[in-house]
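Lecture notes, part 5. Sequence design as translation. It can be helpful to think of inverse folding as translation between two languages: the language of shapes and the language of residues. The source text, in structure tokens, appears below.
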């Protein structure tokens, strides 16, 4: 007997349903009429908070100089474009596979960048590891492709200034950021540093967001990709990554400790897809390893320092 004959849901025949996975939603996930009013409101509210954050980065006091708030638009549009590209990458690929998925929810926040990011809700499970790979890899790959040109543009608009006697926040380097910076800006003389333009800062955040999403833990994008590649081995990898982040939080950037708490709450284990026995094809394996390479190229051990 074929193992697949024991599984209740298969590609071409579903005993208690009668639909094909590629064209109809699975049982237990009835189609809902989308309610997008809240998503649109959150999008525009996040647009406002990111414009304000960008204005503050330019030295504008919104209360004293409200007419200067428009100077935050370049940062806002760059960051919102990156976040939107990332989430639409997930959304469009999920819809292509026939999954039930919401449009992105943006999260406004009174923070340095004006937002806590964005997310989509998938209301139906992944059918197999191929679908898991497509959806998990799409967002980060699209996001990094959009982030790099904005980072390059922002570095071209940035200034190199002496740092003696200046206090402030320093941004950490990833391997990709180091290479791009050397190509665009060139070597930095001792005692000087790049005062990054808000558009470049948005590109930097885009790379950071990419690496955070690609942490191979639980049901983050990286968890999807590693589970699609390695199956149940992902669960052990999740715990090893958690320990590594805990060490980085203790000996490096304290923010990793917050991430450890969040990852603990979210859980390390990735649930198997419906047809877990279906293997990845060669093309998707290549995409998976490229996606993991992007993680290592964009990971920043100490994102912020010098507060």
């Amino acid at each position: 007997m074929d193992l697949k004959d024991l599984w209740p849901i298969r590609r071409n025949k579903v005993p208690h349903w009668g639909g094909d996975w590629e064209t109809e939603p699975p049982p237990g996930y009835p189609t809902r009429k989308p309610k997008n009013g809240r998503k649109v409101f959150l999008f525009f509210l996040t647009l406002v908070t990111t414009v304000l954050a960008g204005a503050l980065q330019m030295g504008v006091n919104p209360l004293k100089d409200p007419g200067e708030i428009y100077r935050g638009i370049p940062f806002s549009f760059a960051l919102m474009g990156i976040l939107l590209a990332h989430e639409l990458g997930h959304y469009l690929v999920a819809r292509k596979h026939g999954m039930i998925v919401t449009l992105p929810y943006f999260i406004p926040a009174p923070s340095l960048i004006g937002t806590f990011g964005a997310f989509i809700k998938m209301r139906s499970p992944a059918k197999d590891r191929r679908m898991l790979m497509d959806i998990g890899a799409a967002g980060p790959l699209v996001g990094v492709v959009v982030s790099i040109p904005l980072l390059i543009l922002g570095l071209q608009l940035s200034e190199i200034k002496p740092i003696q006697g200046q206090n402030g926040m320093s941004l950490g380097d990833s391997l990709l950021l180091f290479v791009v910076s050397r190509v665009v800006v060139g070597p930095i003389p001792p005692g000087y540093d790049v005062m990054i333009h808000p558009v470049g800062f948005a590109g930097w955040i885009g790379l950071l967001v990419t690496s955070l999403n690609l942490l191979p833990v639980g049901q983050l994008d990286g968890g999807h990709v590693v589970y699609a590649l390695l199956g149940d081995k992902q669960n052990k990898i999740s715990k090893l990554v958690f320990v590594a982040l805990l060490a980085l939080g203790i000996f490096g950037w304290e923010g990793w400790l917050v991430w450890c708490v969040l990852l603990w709450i979210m859980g390390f284990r990735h649930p198997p897809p419906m047809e877990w026995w279906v293997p990845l094809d060669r093309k998707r394996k290549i995409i998976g390893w490229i996606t993991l390479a992007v993680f290592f190229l964009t990971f920043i051990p100490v994102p912020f320092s010098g507060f």
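The translated text above is only one of many valid answers, since several sequences can fold into similar shapes. The chain has one domain: 32-305.
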